[in-house]
Amino acid sequence: MKRLGSWSPGFRIGALVVLVAVLGAALWLIFLRSKQSTATSSKLKGSLANNQPLQNSGGEAATFSARGPVNLTGEFFKVQGANGRSCATCHIPEESWSITPATLQRLFDETNGTHPVFNQLDADNPNMDVSTVEARRKTYSMLLTRGVFRRGGPPRPDSEWELIAVDDPHGFASVNQLVHWRRAMPTINFPVGSVTVTWDAGANVGKGQRAALANLNTRLATGALQGKPFTPEVIDEIIDFETALFTAQLTVPDVGRLDADGARGGPEALSAMQKDEGRFDLFDAWMNDPNPKRAQIARGQELFNGTNVSHKSCNACHNSVNNGTSFNNTMFDINTASAEARTPDLPLYTFRNKKTGETRQLTDAGFGNITGHWDDLGLFKTPTLRGLAARAPYFHNGIAATLEDVVRHYEKHFGFRFTDEERADLVAFLNAL
User: Fold this and answer.
1) Is residue 99 in a domain?
2) How far apart are the first and last CA of the chain?
3) How many domains, the chain?
4) Distance (Å, rounded) from C-alpha 270 to C-alpha 335?
């Protein structure tokens, strides 16, 4: 074999060019694999067994897929754009396929705030400094403290209302630019859920559930993922994956499995149910159970259903049987965007009815910016209630840190009244969903 020094100059140059090309390809492959590994925020890899317990603050939740073990390497988990994000960046199995501030804090600490989930595209303010760790911590404070992403756009021009004043602590919103802070909607329980697939129904616009999911994925591809439009094949794969997922709480401390002794909790039982209108009946068998924790969950279920006529019924809005969305896809105003419920980190908008001159202050236009109708301002989707314990904080803007805070919101802003015991019963039921 010839030594390199004995080869002709032209041959040596050619060999070096090939070597550089090979090394470049190898480095590019390593880079792509690195980007692929950051596409998800989950600690899980490979696949997730059906009913595999995943710990949360209320016990353990689990996912059951109608397609068998959950493949954690499909299109849902792949980097689809230029910023290293995938669908699984914000929708992870440990947190009922949403994402919480605790995980966002972990990802920030592990990467010094450079994980793909942290992007100026939907941070507190796109003009903030991201040159240092502490600067990034300030820039992404809404994600780190509330788990909310910045969404929004210009007010609908043909609306029945006009935006006349804005108070935005982040300095981004204006009368020409609405900013809405939204939690990541869990991508679960679609077959027994409402047609509406986003907080404000913006993906639907008259479309059915699958068409709305296709529209949402198309928008996310070029928006949050900053990539090219998905091919129809990729969209179909993602939707088929999402619509096969059923997630619910599986166990509760001192209670055990929620599908034991006649109860029908857990994700597998949910996967066998049909979409219907009516009351929750998951824990009817536990009404007189000698285990006081089980009996408490059953009492909370009855409070939720409004069986006691002295209480308002949660089931009036959450009337999709054992899932808790709105069976008729109705949007509701539960004062989560009201000025009274505003926290200091949320913007406040003053809307004026063009016809009557009436004004209203809200932190989020909700459905009203989709339709342009005055009466639709502040309306939001009723989400699935299954797997609640894994995905705090709650409501579209994360203003309720705990399930007890959720109940107290209804007491303070919606006229519900509970004794301390009743409130504890209701929280126990919500935790078991």
Assistant:
1) no
2) 72
3) 1
4) 30
